[in-house]
Amino acid sequence: MRSSLQNYRRLFYTVLVAAMILMAAVVGCFSLRFMRAQAEREVGSAALKAVNMLRTYDPDDDDGLELITENLRKGAEWTDAETIVFDEDGVALAGSEATPLTERRLSTHTLELIDDHMSSFSVLDGFFDSTRVSVIYRTETDEGTFYVLSSLDAKFFNIYISYMLIIAVIAFSVIFFVSAVLINFHVKRYAEPLKKMTLAAKRFGAGDFSEKVEVADHNEIGFLASTLNEMAASLEEIEETRKSFISNVSHELKTPMTTIGGFVDGILDGTIPESERRRYLRTVSEETQRLSRLVRSMLNISKYESGEIALVRKEFDLTTLTIKTVLLFEHRIDDKKVDIRGLDAPVFTVNADPDLIQQVIYNLTENAVKFVDEGGYIEYSFFTDEGKTHLSIKNSGGGLRKNEMNKVFDRFYKTDESRGKDTTGVGLGLSIVRSIIKLHDGNILVRSKEGEYTEFEFSI
C-alpha cells in the first residue's frame, strides 16, 4: 500500500509541475504576443504622425527638413519610439533622435519587402545594432516616395521575461509547497483508514470479527469502512449459523443414533429379553424414520436454496388446495375440538407450483394443530394486494415470545413450548416453508401475541 501511495504522490507532483510549466508557457506566450502587438501599435501611431507631416513637406524649402525633425523630436518626448524619414532610395532624411543620420539607409532587400507597410521584430537587415520592434510605412506625395520607420528597442522584452521568470518561480514555489502540504495531509488521512481496513480484512479472513473498522468520515472511505463492517457482520452471522447448524445436526443425529445403537447392542448381547425385543425394535424403527426425515428435510432445503428444484407452475385454486390439506389433519383437529374458520372463502387463483405450496400449507397447518389450545381455533384468511395473493394461518394458544419471533425460521430452532409438544419434529419445517416461498419470489412473516395467538402469513 505504501508503494502505491508513493506512486500516486509522485504522479500528482509530476502532473502539478507539468501543469505549472505549461501554464507559464501559455501565459508567457500570450503576454509576449500582447506586448509586441502593443509595441507595434505604439510605433505605428508614431509612424502615421510622421506620414501626415510629410504631406506638407516641400523639398525646395530649406527649413522643411528641420521642421520635420523638430516635430519628430517633440513627438518623441511622449513616446519611447524612434522615428526616421527616408527618401525613395532609403536614405535617411530626418529623425527623432539626436544621433546623426549620416550614412544611415535602408537595405534594398528591406525596400523590396515594403508594399504599403510592414512590421518587423529584428535588426532589419543590419540597420539596427540590436533587435527592435519596427513598423515601416511607404507613402506617396506630390514630392515623391518616402518611407517612415518607427521602432522600439526590444530590451523591454528581456526585462519583462526576467520579471516573469522571477514571479513564476516565486508563485510556483508557493503553489508547490502548499500543494505538497495538502497532498501529504490527504494521503495520510486516506492511508491511515486504509491500513486499518487492511488489517481488519486480515482479521476477518482469519475468523476474528470481534473488532470492527471505525467509520470516521461520511465519504467514499467511510462508505468502504461501513461496507466492510457489514460484510464482517454477515460473515460473523454466517459463521454463527454454521456453528449452530453443525451443533444442531450433531445433536439431532446423536440422539437417535445413540438410541438405535444402545437398543441394537442390548438385543445382540442378550441384555434385552426376547419378550421385549419387538417393542425395542419398534423404537429403533421410529428413530430410523426420524433420521430419514431429518436427512430428507436437509436435502430438500439444500435443493430449494441452491435452485436445483425447478418450479412446475400451474394455475390452481389456493382455497381448494388449503381445504384438501386441512382435511389431512381431520382426526387430530377433532381430538382437540378445534374450531376451523375461514375455509368458506371464494376462489383465489394463483400461478405457482401446487405441490410445493401444499407443502407450505401442510407445514404451517401442522404447526397450528400442534400448538393450538384445547377447544381453540385455527383461522384461514385469503386476500389479494398489489398483484399478490396472501394466505394467513392463525391459531389460538400460547403464542411466541418476542425473542423467539426472529428465530422461528432458523434451521433446527425449537421454542421452549415446542420441545415439549413436538417430540418427532426436527425443527426444519418453517425453514423449508421460507425456502419454498423465496423460490416463488414471495414473502412470509409471523405475528404473535404471547398467551393469545400465533399467525403466519405468506404471499405468492
Would you mind describing this structure in some detail?
It is a single chain. The chain is an alpha+beta fold and 460 residues long. Helices cover 57% and strands 17% of the residues. Strands 2-1-5-4-3 form a five-stranded antiparallel sheet. A hairpin with a 2-residue loop joins strand 9 (377-385) and strand 10 (388-396). Helix 6 (274-306) packs parallel to helix 12 (429-439) and helix 9 runs antiparallel to helix 12. The longest helix is centred in the first third of the chain and has 53 residues, at 2-54. The relative contact order is 0.06.
In short:
Helices cover 57% and strands 17% of the residues.
Question: Which key terms come to mind for this protein?
Answer:
single chain, 460 residues, alpha+beta, 5-stranded antiparallel β-sheet, 5-stranded mixed β-sheet, 12 helices, 12 strands, rod-shaped
Give the terminus-to-terminus CA distance.
Answer: 50 Å
Largest sheet: 5 strands, antiparallel
Strand content: 15-25%
The spatial strand order of the largest sheet comes to 2-1-5-4-3
Radius of gyration over all CA atoms, rounded: 51 Å
Helix content: 55-70%
Low-confidence stretches: 416-421
What structural class should be given to the helix and strand makeup?
alpha+beta
| Overall 3D shape | rod-shaped
Helix-strand topology string: HHEEHEEEHHHEHHEEHEEHHHEE
Rounded mean pLDDT score = 80
The helix count comes to 12
Number of strands: 12
